[in-house]
Write a structure and sequence with these properties.
Number of helices: 10
Strand content: 15-25%
Structural class: alpha/beta
Shape: globular
Radius of gyration: 21 Å
């Protein structure tokens, strides 16, 4: 895109009082957008065209959101508005409870997000302590499952359509940091530095044991999710590969996700397709094959649009566009398979002057994703 020449007119500023966008349309994620005005309502926003406000409208399906961490303060949500995102993903939201999330708190969270003209696209990850017995098959499993089922019901009642989760009781492992482009701070992983970590949960948990626990979980919660109109989105192990801390990492391959998809046949089961993790698993072709296979079957709920340099045994996270993946082809693939979910940033490099949440790095990543989506949409 050509830069604006010096001295050319700047974009007009909004008048006071027009910064808030109207609350977004409510979505039913299993069956699609709620049609409040017939077929014409669904087609009111045409990709690549200008809205009445003059802003470019994202496609009615594929769209860009942003991960805000746990923080839904006015400052952070206003920042999201200024970026032009349509919605947010909140990870382990603060103040919702440590065991189950109740309806009133969920409804307040959604209302808070919508007061900024944004859609609460998804919640990601219940507190680890409320879920590990389910993953590991411990004595408290049934109680935690009941809490999880209640959380799903309450999310559906509150109109929050997606719950992201993972199947690793251990933390997201990284072994260090390194300077990336221009000295930006990026995280790194080296398996050699993680091989001798002590047992994280007192003993070894093998792959088939975790698979049995996962099957028990899915068969218990997917019927509840179907009834509630909520989609569950499974994130890969990060990093993928062999056991760490004595716990197997079963969601580290295409074959694993294929196996999981065959346990239940339901629109409420799907993937949080983390491009970075798939890049760690096998590079560019692995990512594109995964997008084609699961995207064409409607099994991708949303996407972490990020990448790494290197492979699962040793890698560094990086800026979008300088990693393993041909990101233009990845975006075109999502479009070609009819993906109608949302994409968010994830694990961005920390740029000069960034705070813990890395707003500068996130602004760069989000702008890149928006520009790429617009180009793929407009140019076909």
């Amino acid at each position: 895109m050509r830069a604006r020449p010096r001295g050319s007119p700047s974009v007009p500023r909004l008048n006071a009082g027009t910064s808030r966008r109207p609350a977004p349309e409510r979505y039913n994620t299993v069956s699609g957008p709620t049609d409040k005005g017939g077929a014409g309502a669904a087609a009111a926003s045409v990709p690549g065209q200008r809205s009445e406000k003059g802003a470019w409208e994202m496609p009615a399906g594929m769209r860009v959101a942003i991960g805000v961490g746990r923080d839904t303060s006015d400052e952070r949500l206003t920042f999201v508005e200024q970026l032009g995102c349509e919605g947010v993903v909140v990870a382990t939201p603060a103040g919702l409870g440590e065991h189950r999330w109740e309806y009133d708190a969920l409804a307040r969270l959604r209302e808070r997000v919508e007061s900024h003209g944004l859609r609460l696209e998804a919640l990601q990850n219940t507190p680890a302590g409320s879920f590990d017995a389910v993953r590991l098959g411990l004595r408290e499993r049934d109680v935690q499952l009941e809490h999880y089922q209640a959380t799903i019901r309450n999310m559906g009642r509150a109109g929050i359509p997606v719950l992201g989760y993972n199947w690793r009781p251990n933390p997201l492992y990284r072994t260090g940091h390194a300077p990336g482009r221009g000295g930006a701070r990026v995280t790194t992983f080296d398996l050699e530095l993680a091989r001798d970590l002590p047992l994280s949960h007192g003993r070894v948990y093998g792959a088939e044991e975790l698979w049995a626990n996962y099957e028990h979980f899915v068969k218990a919660v997917i019927p509840v999710a179907e009834e509630a109109g909520v989609r569950l989105a499974l994130h890969p192990d990060d990093p993928p590969g062999p056991a760490i801390g004595g716990v197997a990492r079963i969601f580290s391959s295409f074959e694993a996700f294929q196996r999981a998809s065959e346990i239940v046949d339901s629109p409420s089961w799907g993937l949080l397709f983390c491009m970075g993790c798939w890049s760690e698993m096998g590079g560019n072709d692995y990512v594109l094959n995964g997008l084609r296979h699961f995207g064409s079957r409607g099994k991708i709920v949303y996407v972490h649009f990020r990448d790494v340099q290197g492979s699962g045994d040793r890698f560094a996270e990086c800026f979008i566009g300088e990693g393993n993946v041909d990101v233009t082809t990845a975006m075109r693939t999502l479009k070609s398979v009819g993906f109608d979910g949302f994409l968010i940033d994830d694990h961005v490099p920390h740029m000069v002057g960034d705070t813990d949440w890395a707003p500068r790095g996130r602004a760069y990543a989000t702008g890149y994703i928006m520009g790429l989506l617009r180009a793929v949409t407009d140019l076909g």
